[in-house]
Amino acid sequence: MEKNEIWWYNSCTYCESEVYKVEWKFKCVNCHRNIPFLEKRFKIVVLAEDATEAFNFILKNRAAKRAIGFTATKLIANKKKDGESNAYPLEITAITGKELTFTIQISDDNFLLNSKILP
Prior knowledge:
Domain Replication factor A C-terminal: 3-112
Radius of gyration: 17 Å
Pfam families: Rep_fac-A_C (PF08646)
Distance between the termini: 23 Å
Largest sheet: 3 strands, antiparallel
InterPro entries: NA-bd_OB-fold, Rep_factor-A_C
Number of helices: 4
Structural class: alpha+beta
Helix content: 10-25%
Shape: flat
Strand order of the largest sheet: 1-4-5
Protein name: Replication factor A C-terminal domain-containing protein
Number of strands: 5
């Protein structure tokens, strides 16, 4: 687990993409909507391995919520309440060493565009 990584992001409530502040407003980079209410979502970098290889994965919101048992919003609120706003959440580090199963989808683009995820 990469503890120095940012473990959450502000997301678009419509398409779940990351949003950025542009001229006092939050704007989605994907669907170009102005976002009045932000939703916080997980984005956790983990190292996964089997007997043959090791890979970095990004646990996005749904997978991270299942593994951790909390939403990103709930973890952030708990950290603020406990006065630990800068500490990496123990709830996230608790998944270290857990056995998780990943399903990886590989599309034609991975082959056609010489994706670096394939040998």
